[in-house]
Amino acid sequence: MSSAVGHHEALLRPLLRSVATLTATTNAAMVAAKGSSLAPSSALSASFSTCAASSGVVSSAPAASSSSSSSASSSSSSSSSKPNKPSSIVRAAVCSELKAPLTLSADYSPAGHPLVAKISPEKRVRIGIRACGVNFADTLMVEGLYQVKPPLPFVPGAEIAGIVLETGSAVKSVKIGDHVIALLDGGGFATECIAHEAQVYALPKTIAFGQAAALPVSYGTAITALSYRAQTKPGETVLITAAAGGVGLASIELAKRVLGAKVIACAGGAEKLAVCQAKGADHVIDYNKESIKDRVKEITNGKGVNVVIEVVGGDTFDQCLRSLAPEGRLVVIGFASGSIPSIPANLTLVKNIAVLGLYWGGYQAFNPSVLRNSIKDVIKHCEAGHISPVVSATYPLDQVNDAFALLRTRKSTGKVVVTMNE
């Protein structure tokens, strides 16, 4: 990973990998009313009409306003037998020029997204989006600095929460009116999207849309790191770097409240350390002022930690590696410092320790069940009250550029979310 990228932008890469190679598909799929490749929503209606004729869209519902999600649920029973047209206006934050602010469009067609054509019509799910989480990958993509470079114009955004408006005939896991989260191949900063059923997860209506949009990437990564890769056991001690960030806070909660581990949180500055303590960290280390290695030795009485969730790289990685107890496990998630460290192989031998990599999004390509199970697990834990995502800032869609600007400062704690309030 390049030093400019950090760790968050890598998490979603395989989900977006094929966008850059689909320019031809984009040109064929985007229908323009006025010569624009961002077509009006009549194209979406036509898309689902075709589905109904050829492979059977069995139900649809009108888009609900974000201020009354319950009305969308109650309307599903009356609308399921007679298809309804989608909302006449689908708004979206569009990247028409790299390194320029996103512009708000009122004639976006989700059916024109380049990857929708790849989704079998009977497996499509049309969703009225209520919230979309902002990831660092989004900010890089609109600047042309991300590994995947979609053809212009495009709508960024990958993790969304909303309400099912329409389903294909073979969709079984969700129905009209269901609240859902979805991990998209872009197109999340809009009021509607079309996803494959495999990208969509049923969401209990007790979980607010803003919180739900903060779950997939941060918590999915954290639970996979702790449970699947590190095999964390109750009573073990877990050291977490960049602990005030999205993945860090998720790791604190899951390690402490779900896995029964002890937590040492590392962050820079008193304000961020206070956030970590509020989430349940047993000990905190300000790595702007303190040596991680020395403090861990002090806290653990020289025994070291059993697990490290490492996001920073550079000297932080080296100190964490040397803080492991015998048979300890260090999970590398990213290199937010921009410095990719070298691993002293002799240290792994002498202490019988393991260094494990985690590219969470990579499981989509070769073992998607790991990714899907992680999202299902965090939804379950959120519903049970074991975890509560920190949403540090919420912006309406027309202020999406402000949301991106905040994330670029790297001063936010937890998650930044954009809501699609009408």
TrEMBL record:
Pfam family, one: ADH_N
Occurrences of domain Enoyl reductase (ER) (ranges): 103-418
Superkingdom classification of source: Eukaryota
Family annotation (Gene3D superfamilies): Medium-chain alcohol dehydrogenases, catalytic domain, NAD(P)-binding Rossmann-like Domain
Annotated spans, Disordered: 62-86
GO CC, any one term: mitochondrion
Molecular-function GO terms, alphabetical: oxidoreductase activity
Name the record gives this protein: Quinone oxidoreductase-like protein 2
Organism: Capsaspora owczarzaki (strain ATCC 30864)
Source organism phylogeny: Eukaryota, Filasterea, Capsaspora
